[in-house]
Amino acid sequence: MHFGALHGLGLCHAALGEDRQAIGAFRRALEIQPYENQRLILAREENIKTVLEIGS
Predict the structure, then answer these.
(1) Model pTM?
(2) 10: which of 20, 29, 52, 56 is 20 to 30 A away, CA to CA?
(3) Domain count of the chain?
(4) What would the pLDDT profile of 9-35 be if each residue is shown by its tens digit?
(5) Distance from CA of residue 55 to its chain's centroid?
(6) Which residue pairs from 1-7 have beta carbons closer than 8 angstroms and sit at least 24 positions apart in sequence?
(7) Domain of residue 25, residue span
(8) For residues 43 and 33, what is the distance between their CA atoms, to the nearest angstrom?
(9) Chain-centre distance of CA 42, in angstroms?
């Protein structure tokens, strides 16, 4: 699968509140292209983790 498609999928999951699926998609995107927009993806993932921790 393409990096951009996985990144977009992660954004869609995040917008729908599907946080765990968003993190999974972002991680798969980084496996394919680890340096492209890495800081943006990791920052997004950290924000989602924080939301999950607060909601637990």
Answers:
(1) 0.63
(2) 56
(3) 1
(4) 998 998 898 988 988 998 898 888 777
(5) 18
(6) 1/28, 1/32, 2/32, 3/29, 3/32, 3/33, 3/36, 6/32, 7/37, 7/41
(7) 3-55
(8) 16
(9) 7
